[in-house]
Amino acid sequence: MTAPQTPAPTATLPAPAAIQQLHHYAYKARDAEETRHFYEDILGLPLYHIIQSDYVPSTGEYCPYTHFFFRLQDGSFIAFFDLGDDVKPEPSPNTPLWVNHIAFRVNTVQELEDTKARLQAHGVEVLGVTDHHIFKSIYFFDPNGIRLELAAQVANEEQMAKDSTVAHARLKEWTARKEQWRKERAEGKVAAPLKPQQNDRPEFARG
Length: 207
Fold this sequence. Notes:
Structural class: alpha/beta
Mean pLDDT: 93
Low-confidence stretches: none
Strand content: 25-35%
């Protein structure tokens, strides 16, 4: 058994890479053509690249696949694997369906409205437009059961910069409260999930 390696002192490590943008996010697809039709013909993302192989480069395991990529305006991609089994990916059994999703930015709220109308004309159920204060969104599912969001920013750079000055403090407070909650849960004093210290969306609170 190999002993765990001791982390190198931080001072000797190179600086983090300057991560520029998302390169791609990959999901399993039930069917490549069904997925292409949705992303290219309905959402307007061009099919840009395909990789096909019998073996997985990262692990070396045998698993034939077609890996295909759709390009966003900034040069990033959303990608899929068709494994040739005609099986839809399963959602996480311990996570609500609204939690795991990918959000794409559009430029205007009007584009949200237009895309909503376009999706509905193709038989896609759409939620929203939802007001998140700093942006507005619509939500829908792709043919693989993946929840997607289109978001139009409404807050300006000054507003976002102001929020960034308190983000660490708010998360630190949440972490401290969670540590106390874990202790009380271990002692059998609480069973309910931890609630946040403030409600940024009071308009949705139930009376």
